[in-house]
Amino acid sequence: MANIVIVSTLDTKAEETSFLKELIEQRGHNAILVDAGMGGEPAIPADISAEEVAKAGGGDIKEMRASRETGKLTPIMIKGAIEKIKELDAEGKVDGILSFGGASNTTLGTSVMKAFPFGVPKFMLSSTAAMPAYAARYIGTSDIAMMHSVLDIAGLNDLVKDALRRAAGAIVGMVESGPPITAEALKGRDKPLIAITEFKFAEGAGHIAMELLKEKGYEPIAIHAQGIGDRAMEELIAQGIFDGVLDLVPAGVSEEWIGGNRAAGPTRLEAAGGRGIPQVLVPCGFEMISAGPLSRKDQGDPLWASRNLAQRKMFFPDEFRLQVRTNAEELKETARIVAEKLNKSKGPVKFFIPTQGWSVLSIEGADLYDPETDQVFAPELRKYLKPEIEVVELDTHLNTPEFARAAVDALDQMMKAR
């Protein structure tokens, strides 16, 4: 028997919640109802009441029900629900989390789910899952599974029942697939996990490096460095999932301060240093800005206007994506920011720079080839880095066995020296 937490608002969604609870119990599992409703009295009892949730979030449910300021009150219920579910988790009573509803309940449910680590089954049935402006915010960097209900989940009819049946089946299937992979469960494993960032323009280097890591007894885990993937990696590192990092594409750092499409948040490049695990870095991606689609150029986009991107070298992979060349001043500022972050590292760090090109776009003959601009990065990085962090320049380009082997060998040496 598994414990599946249902986060709901029992003042408005009691009938549907009760139906979900019965479906889960019919499959042999225990459903724990957490009431995060604040509009009125619940129509059915909860295992964790709205009063308890509000109190845990620092509020008073009676005062909250008398208020109309839902924008200020919802965070209180989210915080309280997280606290109460974490108490359940400490008792080993959270095998999965399920929620359903429209925009408000989806924000509530997914905000709660984000507070729980990778691997804990999370399922959201939402009538707003397909709205482009909302979907990415709902999921964020979490491993939340979302299903678009299509119809509004208001009252029980044959179509709503069908959607709820599938939601119940999904979360039950997820919890029955086995316990989540956690940092605790990974301790003592024979093959240490290595996070390796990659994207399309560094595929060759990524493939070679992964094979070399496997040969040395590691299990490499590829992270797509498209912004959200980088953020998720930082969270997984902080959770203790990874033992080392081969950061081939740390460009989420430059994209963040410049304003590119692959911005990875203000804490990119900080989790590994905070934990003290070995890091090897490469400047792949620092030579470009993800600024697509091209239509932004003629729409007064602030990034294009402020940085005069239209006058720079460009590469068009397709109609949506566009890579624009960074200039010398941007590389210098990126070097300073990177050095500032790496200087806080509690563990070993090395930085490898391939002088013949940092990606397939910046090698000789490629669209973003600009070796004179690339050359400003290494001196600037050394200028700000503390002396014990070595910067190694190799006379080759990124996607060569020679470069990949040097980077992997350096990481292997640091891992063995721990």
In which range does the helix fraction lie? 40-55%
- Rg calculated over all Cα atoms: 24 Å
CATH hierarchy class name of the largest domain: Alpha Beta
Number of domains: 2
How widely separated are the two ends? 41 Å
Uncertain residue ranges = none
Q: Structural class from helices and strands?
A: alpha/beta
Quaternary structure annotation: single chain
The CATH homologous superfamily of the largest domain corresponds to Uncharacterised protein family UPF0261, NC domain
Number of helices: 17
Mean pLDDT, rounded to whole units? Answer: 94
Q: Using DSSP, what is the number of strands? A: 14
CATH architecture of the largest domain: 3-Layer(aba) Sandwich
> Could you tell me the strand content as a percent range?
15-25%
Tell me the CATH topology of the largest domain. Rossmann fold
